[in-house]
Amino acid sequence: MSEVTGLSASEVMGRLRTVHDPCSVASGRPINLVDMGMVDRVTIGDDGTVDIYLKLTSPACYLMPYLESESVRAVAEVPGVRSVAVHPDEGLDWSPRMMAESVRADRALPLLPMAGCR
Asked: Which residues does the UniProt record annotate as the domain MIP18 family-like (predicted)?
């Protein structure tokens, strides 16, 4: 929690739970970024700046602009947030094992593949 702004990572993560992975939405089973295991970490500066580090599901993910804009929109609504920046990785490290256990258990059927998603 930022001592100056009172912002907490749990508040930010709560807002990121409102952003869904477009590939899971397209398959008919929406999964938010947090439960999908795409949020690597969140840092909060004393000046209200929030940095979100995402793990992309694929190096070919062409939906990063959507993930960025929706993450910024959702987190910017939190009182005390001054700015939001999203930092994606190269899409080489994510695996389905990073999903929340509840999501993995709920996925009896595999997600339908969409170009650029795995």
From this structure: 11-86
The SS3 of residue 15 is: helix
Amino acid found at 12:
V
Distance CA 63, CA 117 (A): 9
Q: How far apart are CA 32 and CA 98, in angstroms?
A: 13
Residue that the structure tokens 């990785």 belong to: 89
Which class would CATH give 9-93?
alpha beta
Question: What digits encode the pLDDT tens for the residues 80-118?
Answer: 999 999 999 988 888 888 999 888 877 755 555 555 555
CA distances 83 to 15, 30, 43, 97, 104, Å, are: 14, 27, 12, 31, 33
Rounded to whole angstroms, the Cα distance separating 81 from 105 reads: 34
pTM for this model (two decimals): 0.84
CA atoms within 13 A on the CB side of 98: 17
